[in-house]
Amino acid sequence: MKIIRASHCLTTPWKNGGGSTTEIAAEPSGTSLDTFDWRVSMAQVASDGPFSEFPGIDRTLAIVSGRGLVLTIGNDAPVTIEGESEPINFAGDIPTSARLIGGEITDLNVMARRGRFSHRLRRVREALSCDYDDNDTAVVLSLNGNTTVTSQYEVATLGHGDAAILVCAREVSFCITPAVGSDCYLVLLRQHRD
């Protein structure tokens, strides 16, 4: 189990001044925005505007704080996403824009390079025992409180913004136990093999 503390994550302001992004984890390690296989990040969105395009990338977005936003993805009807909404999936190469509902928000973004990895994102609010099924990697992100992650060999306590990366090759299963009132997110990643 690899632990990533929030204090070690790099936050980068956007060139357009409309927000900032904090990278939580990406593979391969040290990869750029053009070469990652998968990436988990949080964004502080302070103004309306278009999303950056990511050709060949599948994305999932969830609202973790703030009122929410209205997403327009390509020619589809606008979709409202709030804190209690299910995460929304969309292709990074389709023009997408966002309009804030009522002030700044923080969202969680998971991106995977199509054809190399696929991913799933879910919110966890109660203790959960997890098997990998056909997935290779799990990322657990703790928000608004503490979360305990227990694997075969280790126990770790995650604070706000901390994450744990677990790899199937080293673990058989793991448990996630968020503290009462905490939010926790689980990302499952599966590598595509030819």
**Percent range for β-strand residues:** over 45%
| Unreliable stretches | none
Q: N-to-C SSE series? A: EEEEEEEEEEEEEEEEEEE
Indicate the CATH class of the largest domain: Mainly Beta
Protein name: HutD-family protein
InterPro entries: RmlC-like_jellyroll, RmlC_Cupin_sf, Uncharacterised_HutD/Ves
Pfam family, one: HutD
Organism: Bradyrhizobium canariense
Helices, strands, pairings?
Elements: E1 2-4, E2 11-13, E3 19-27, E4 38-45, E5 49-50, E6 57-65, E7 69-73, E8 79-81, E9 88-91, E10 96-100, E11 105-113, E12 117-124, E13 128-131, E14 137-143, E15 147-151, E16 155-158, E17 163-167, E18 173-178, E19 183-191
Antiparallel strand pairs: 1-17, 2-3, 3-4, 4-11, 5-10, 6-9, 6-11, 7-8, 7-10, 12-19, 13-18, 14-17, 14-19, 15-16, 15-18
InterPro entries: RmlC-like_jellyroll, RmlC_Cupin_sf, Uncharacterised_HutD/Ves
Organism: Bradyrhizobium canariense
Protein name: HutD-family protein
Provide structural commentary.
- This is HutD-family protein.
- Pfam families: HutD.
- The structure is a single chain.
- The strands form 4 sheets. The protein has a 6-stranded antiparallel β-sheet, with no helix packed on it. Strands 1-17-14-19-12 form a 5-stranded antiparallel β-sheet, with no helix packed on it.
- It folds into 2 domains: 9-113, Jelly Rolls (Sandwich); 117-191, Jelly Rolls (Sandwich), CATH 2.60.120.
- The protein has strands spanning 2-4, 11-13, 19-27, 38-45, 49-50, 57-65, 69-73, 79-81, 88-91, 96-100, 105-113, 117-124, 128-131, 137-143, 147-151, 155-158, 163-167, 173-178, 183-191.
- A hairpin with a 5-residue loop joins strand 2 and strand 3 (19-27).
- The protein has 194 residues and is mainly beta.
- The protein contains no helices and 19 strands.
